[in-house]
Design brief:
The complex is a heterodimer. Chain A is an alpha/beta fold. Chain A has ten helices and eleven strands. The chains are: A alpha/beta, B alpha/beta.
Chain lengths: 366, 253
């Protein structure tokens, strides 16, 4: 869960109408600038932009990301714990706080001429802070502008700054959208299944293993996470299933230790075809072996931008028949945005394997 | 010399929620001192411990063979300059390949010389001489899919020569195994994780990332295991070996 505190935006607007300075140099009468600036400040006050932007962030983050985001008003970080000013929120289930500061709205000249046309530029500094220890997870200045909309100072200020009001309203939304896009990146997750998984009537007993032989480039720690994802979902979805540790499975079925079997689809099928192993399988009551593997790769999509893609596979071997089904999960997201891909793919894989096993288990029980 | 640290612990740049460890200055200091000591000593020795793939087991060759391990093979060491580590590959390779040949043949007898010699057992169908053709840990990969990863892929290539019982070479071939697990994934750091914070919070992980010795060791073990698996699973597929086996009246069932 993330929360967006309100304090960050309070008072960040003052003195931010930069266009006034440029305009004054460019020979527009000072009185005209004073009047315009007054109108602009009044508009910003009316729009209550320091509340509006965080509200939009919460709204967009809730609708566009899987994160739970709450608004925390008047959250003062100046606690005694300087290293972790939001530690108190950690106990309430909030993982991180998004601070929004230095919110500015400016009219900037788009040309170096007398009385230049002005464009609206909105910026804010966003900091993502972990509540448990105060670690700064991310910090960036986010800017939104629409340089295609250029107006003279008079036009911006005309009719009690109506054009300014409209543009600021939209800019607040665009800024919030950009904050969500950059600080709450999401990845696209897909799952698929092939083959069929049958479950014998005598109950389910299985083992889940990460195979380095399938995924030679994958960190062991990520392999262990894959095993965790699948076993966790299996334990929830098929509580009656017996989950057998890797070492016990190796000893019982293959008669060797982990590492002494080349764990690949073709070699597993070869082994399951062997009479001595078939005998061991029958005696053990074990029904399935699930081999997980996969990797994360990055690839460029255009200059300065690359994508991160995680593709995971679970091969579900039915030990008695040697048949195999596959569950696939992939997640893809922007590398620059830092969209997580490994955890979503891992969770999706676990859910898909659980569906495959549970579905058949229910069929069998009917 | 003692082997380098072989403790197995996942190297995480970004500790998962609930797994992070508190910053411990004293521990960090001790690690710094150890690192400094290792650097000043000039070299760390590390000995991989590869595991032989026993299943699916190869179809046994019903022959008794001799095996000759040369002094060069026994003492083979690869020096990895980035981590200033000497990888002792000869002895563990000897153990691994001896187990592999024992799995493959009816009986394997160690002999003092590669060719024929007086006093050689008359029931030996031939003599096999293994060697390490090359072993290397490449530094940083510049392949696009691996950009951002400190990969340091490892390869180990074993060469084998089979001599007939009369001492004539009858077959010679290589097998190569690879270990390509990244030493550390820097992509997460690139996308915004605060490196200084990480340094403070998980110094051990960073030490592992910098030195990468544990992961390199696993990569060597994986490469040796894979190469030995290629020996046992592909032995009968070498054309010259098939010819030799045919002359020994051994046929593939």
């Amino acid at each position: 869960m993330f929360c967006v505190p309100a304090f960050g935006t309070v008072g960040a607007i003052g003195g931010s109408i930069y266009g006034a300075i440029y305009g004054a140099v460019a020979a527009e009468p000072a009185s005209e600038w004073e009047q315009a600036e007054s109108a602009f400040k009044g508009t910003l006050s009316d729009l209550n932009i320091q509340q509006r932007v965080p509200n939009h962030i919460v709204e967009f983050a809730r609708s566009q990301t899987p994160y739970r985001v709450i608004r925390v008003d008047n959250q003062d970080p100046s606690s005694k714990d300087e290293k972790a000013p939001y530690r108190a929120l950690a106990s309430k289930g909030v993982d991180a706080v998004l601070e929004l500061t230095e919110l500015t709205v400016s009219l900037r000249p788009s040309d170096t001429v007398i009385n230049p046309p002005l464009s609206l530029v909105t910026t804010a500094r966003a900091r993502l802070i972990r509540t448990s220890d105060g670690a700064l997870l991310d910090e960036r200045v986010i800017t939104v502008d629409d340089l295609s909309i250029e107006r003279s100072l008079a036009t911006w200020a005309d009719q009690n700054a109506q054009a300014f009001r409209q543009e600021v309203t939209q800019a607040a939304q665009r800024l919030a959208q950009q904050v969500v896009k950059e600080l709450f990146p999401v990845s696209q997750v897909k799952v698929a299944r092939s083959g069929d998984v049958l479950t014998p009537s005598g109950g389910i007993a299985l083992s889940v293993m990460f195979s380095r032989d399938i995924s030679p480039e994958t960190l062991r720690s990520f392999g262990e996470e894959m095993v965790e994802c699948v076993t966790r979902d299996l334990a929830k979805a098929v509580p009656e299933a017996r989950l057998v540790p890797e070492e016990e499975f190796h000893r019982t079925v293959f008669g060797v230790k982990p590492g002494e079997v080349f764990l690949r689809a073709d070699t597993i099928r070869t082994l399951l075809d062997r009479p001595d192993i078939g005998q061991r399988v029958r005696e053990s009551g074990l029904t399935h072996l699930i081999l997980v593997g996969g990797a994360t790769k990055t690839y460029p999509v255009k200059l300065g931008e690359s994508m991160r893609s995680t593709q995971l596979t679970a091969s579900i071997f039915e030990l008695a028949s040697g048949r195999v089904g596959h569950a696939l999960a992939s997640a893809e997201g922007s590398q620059v945005g830092g969209a997580p891909t490994e955890s979503p793919a891992c969770e999706a894989l676990g859910a898909e394997v659980a569906r495959a096993i549970r579905g058949k288990a229910r069929d069998e029980s009917r | 010399m003692k082997a380098a640290n072989t403790a197995s612990r996942p190297s995480r740049l970004w500790p998962a929620p609930g797994r992070q460890r508190p910053f411990r200055p004293r521990r960090m200091l001790s690690v710094l001192v150890l690192l400094a000591a290792a650097i000043s000593a000039g070299c760390v020795w590390s000995v991989p411990e590869p595991v032989l793939v026993r299943e699916p087991r190869p179809e046994p060759v019903p022959l008794r063979v001799g095996v000759y391990y040369s002094p060069e093979f026994r003492s083979f060491t690869y020096r990895h300059h980035l981590t200033d580590t000497a990888w002792v590959l000869g002895e563990p390779s000897l153990r691994l390949l001896h187990e592999a040949l024992t799995l493959l043949f009816l009986e394997v007898v160690e002999v003092p010389r590669p060719g024929s010699e007086p006093g050689l057992r008359g029931d030996l169908a031939g003599i096999i001489e293994p060697g390490i053709v090359s072993a290397e840990a490449v530094y940083i990969s510049d392949e696009p899919p691996k950009a951002g990863l400190v990969v340091q892929p490892v390869h180990v290539t074993y060469g084998f020569t089979v001599y007939s019982s009369s001492g004539e070479p009858v077959a010679s071939w290589d097998v190569t195994g690879r270990g390509e697990v990244p030493i550390v994934d820097l992509r997460d750091a690139i996308v915004g994780i605060n490196m200084l914070d990480m340094l403070k919070r998980d110094f051990d992980a960073m030490r592992e990332a910098i030195a990468g010795i544990n992961m390199l060791k696993r990569n060597f073990e994986h490469a040796m295991r894979e190469a030995a698996w290629k020996l046992t699973s592909g032995f009968r597929e070498i054309p010259e070996v098939r010819e030799w086996l045919a002359k020994q009246a051994v046929r593939k069932d």
